[in-house]
Amino acid sequence: MPEVTVNIYSRSYRLAVSTGEEALIQRCADIVDKQMKAIREGGKVINQDQIAVLAALEVAYEANKNVQKNSTDAQRSAAEKDAEIARLKARIAELESRPAPVAAPLQASGPDAETTEAIERLCRQCEQAIYANMSRGAVL
């Protein structure tokens, strides 16, 4: 089991930790150290035991506050997603309840009729040219 040495409030502590947890323990020790120094610098508490207890209490309080905030945020996010899902399901049901659109038959009219007519004319000319070449014995 790996060990890590941390410094908290000018004292060194050697701790056995799980593999891969060394950096996390060091960050936690830094938080506790900073909190203890902040309490001492506040000047209201002098006893080291009281400083340690107040620092631990403050760290635990902040951690709990973050857990509650994350839980509230997750609940809000889940509620928003549930509302979005319900809205989408309602929209799907609305679309499914509509009658299927009937495709209108294509009719040549307007500018498309002119284009179609021009294409048909060109096709006839091509066919005539091909048959004329075939009747003369030309190879394509």
Automatic annotation (TrEMBL):
Keywords: Cell cycle, Cell division, Cytoplasm, Septation. InterPro entries: Cell_div_ZapA-like (IPR007838), Cell_div_ZapA-like_sf (IPR036192), Cell_div_ZapA_N (IPR042233). Its main location: cytoplasm. This is Cell division protein ZapA. It is found in: Cytoplasm. GO terms for biological process: division septum assembly; FtsZ-dependent cytokinesis; septin ring assembly. SUPFAM superfamilies: Cell division protein ZapA-like. The lineage of its organism: Bacteria, Pseudomonadati, Pseudomonadota, Betaproteobacteria, Burkholderiales. Activator of cell division through the inhibition of FtsZ GTPase activity, therefore promoting FtsZ assembly into bundles of protofilaments necessary for the formation of the division Z ring. It is recruited early at mid-cell but it is not essential for cell division. The keyword Cytoplasm applies. Pfam families: ZapA. GO terms for cellular component: cell division site; cell septum; cytosol. Homodimer. Interacts with FtsZ. It comes from the Bacteria.
